[in-house]
Amino acid sequence: MLPETRTDGEVGRTLIIADVVVRTCRAEDLADLEWFGLYRHHREIFAEAFARYLLDQNIMLVAAMHDFPVGQAWVDLTKRQSEGVGYIWAVRVFPFLRGLGIGTRLMESAQQVLRSRDILVAEIGVEKDNPDARRLYERLGYAVTGELTEQYGYTTPEGVQGWHTVDQWILRKRLDSWT
Question: For burial by CB atoms within 10 Å, which of 28, 70, 118, 132 has the most?
């Protein structure tokens, strides 16, 4: 028999406080970044990004909870290098942990990495059908500077090839100050 419930069906509640650490990605994180199969079709992309990270062309940050990556933000150091711009990409947070400040902390950490390398402009693309992410970036001081449509290919672990088209807003922010 269930304990007495409230009219909304709630039986119990607890508050969970978790320590989330933003750190650089490790090789052993790559499988966990698939998030229990949710992003298994990105395995090849993760491996390529990690190879570029090892060559210092890319910075891979993860937000880890109990050493499990629950978020990520990657910084491409070469894509806009000639313009003095660091390109932040692949920002995501585990779905049920969104809205808790993890994305903000990842973006702040990515900006800190760029500043430490004397890169004073950050750019990020956000899919047009993701208004929540756009609101986050604008709240952090980014402004729309253009639009872009890109295609990228991937191969699933079973060898199936696919393509994804991304229609996105391009946003930029100057990193001259620590605000």
Answer: 70
